[in-house]
Amino acid sequence: MGSKTRKVAVVGVGFVGASCAYSMVNQSICDEILLIDRTAERAYAQALDLSHCMDFTHTRTKVYAGGYEDCGDADIVVLCAGANPIPGGTRLALLDSSYEIYKTIIPLIMKSGFNGIFVVAANPVDIVTYMVWKLSGLSRGQVIGTGTSIDSSRLKTLLCEFLPVDPRSVQGYVLGEHGDSQFPAWSHVTIGGKPILDILAQHPHRFGHIKLDEIAAKTRNAGWEIMQRKGSTHYGIANAIAHIVRSVLNDDYKITAVSAILEGEYGVNGLCAGVPAILTRRGIAELVELNLTEKEQEQFAYSCSVLRAAAAPLDLK
Description:
The chain is built from ten helices and 14 strands. It is of the alpha/beta class.
């Protein structure tokens, strides 16, 4: 990450990639945004459209289209290329198509001399993140998947439909797969620092109607609910990407649930899953190992087994 100009490349500028670039422009996160797409005309049009925002933003962000050879001086490359899940399918069903895309793309990016941070948003994000790590040869801290960042945000939003607080006053994480085997670590969810389990136990007359299992299910299915109604999810995940990019560029040391390569943490080796991580200019500086309950540890192990089984045919060793 030797460039003095804060430069971010976005690969794949469909709904998610374009929304991510739009979020970064409006939040003045970086100085330059390079857009890359298999359809060069679309990348050019998105860059032109975004450049017309500048009169109405706080700072000027240079937005332009280019190719993989232009990634060499980028601080961060955001990977959004990929297909949306089909109705009735799962994110894991996209694995083969994602593998075909990224086994071609990553060597081209690395050939440019890139040595920054990858932020992966393509599904199935946990396996694609691991794939990108293996294909790139970068350190594990330099490859970050969006993972359960969006699921954790959805959890907080859903909880605040029942609790009279702002979602930003809720602390907690969804762990494991960004997919059907994910789960909230309820033992670590707090409202203003107070454990939610204590709040429910102490105030049954006020909050006895809250069913944590139902909230977990709604969190897990939130993406599908959006997909069924409008065909894609992009605003929430775009802001999650922007948050991760900003945290890295600003050296924030902010803790966020992301998909990270596990090397013994939580008793797991050789795969990626959603866990809290400290984000810095170096990428992931450290993983935060929560003291999970026995049930939560079993849920985490199961979620990792789902990911391992799905990734096994790719032989990503």
